[in-house]
Design brief:
There is one protein chain. With 187 residues, the protein is of the alpha+beta class. The protein has 2 domains: 78 residues, no CATH class; 82 residues, N-terminal domain of TfIIb (Single Sheet). 46% of the residues lie in helices and 27% in strands. It contains 4 helices and 6 strands. The protein has a 6-stranded antiparallel sheet with strand order 1-2-6-5-4-3, with helices on one face. It is elongated, with a radius of gyration of 27 Å. 14% of the residues are buried.
């Protein structure tokens, strides 16, 4: 009888341990599923901030690293998509009389039926760029209409008489200075 009681107690203990392990596994995976995306974003931010700080302190480190470690540019691009931008404007022209935000580089230019579309990239915060154009376009006599706005993208229409211009601000990277792409399109 004593052996049967011990056997039943042993089986009960094993069942409790197995159930506890299953519960811990399920609770743990749920916790990871909820928090992993935030941890991943935090890791990307730490890496991108580190790269920016190193480049500020030691100018030219990226170029040196490119020669030492082949493919580093591609890896940086994977971590910080859109971080690289050309040094000079592509061919084309800006839409007149719209001023250009300082430090913007023209990355594309196209015309369709006489209407221009120009895209720029630059290091700036989305909010600062949209405020700059809000003030500048108001000074030029344009009326503003917010079409859509989020933390990553904002679209505005500016109208003056028959001229309508669309501004599309898109956040590309979250390094400390921020990198955005601005597309200005004549409608």
């Amino acid at each position: 009888m004593k052996k049967i009681v011990l056997l039943l107690c042993g089986i009960a203990a094993v069942v409790v341990v197995v159930m506890l392990c299953i519960w811990i596994f399920r609770a743990g995976t749920g916790f990871l599923r909820e928090n992993f995306p935030q941890w991943l974003e935090g890791g990307k931010k730490i890496v991108s901030e580190g790269i920016t700080k190193v480049d500020e302190v030691l100018p030219g480190v990226k170029e040196t690293a490119k020669g030492v470690v082949p493919g580093i540019t591609a890896r940086v691009q994977e971590m910080i998509p859109g971080a690289e931008r050309p040094a000079n404007d592509v061919d084309g022209e800006d839409i007149k009389p719209i001023p250009r935000y300082p430090d913007l580089i023209r990355v594309s230019y196209a015309t369709d039926n006489g209407k221009k579309t120009v895209s720029y990239k630059g290091k700036m915060k989305l909010e600062a760029a949209s405020e700059f154009y809000k003030k500048e376009m108001a000074a030029l006599g344009f009326n503003e209409k917010v079409v859509s706005a989020s933390l990553k993208e904002a679209v505005y229409h500016y109208t003056k008489g028959t001229q309508v211009v669309e501004f599309r601000f898109k956040k590309i990277a979250n390094i400390p200075s921020g990198i955005i792409e601005l597309t200005i399109k004549e409608l």
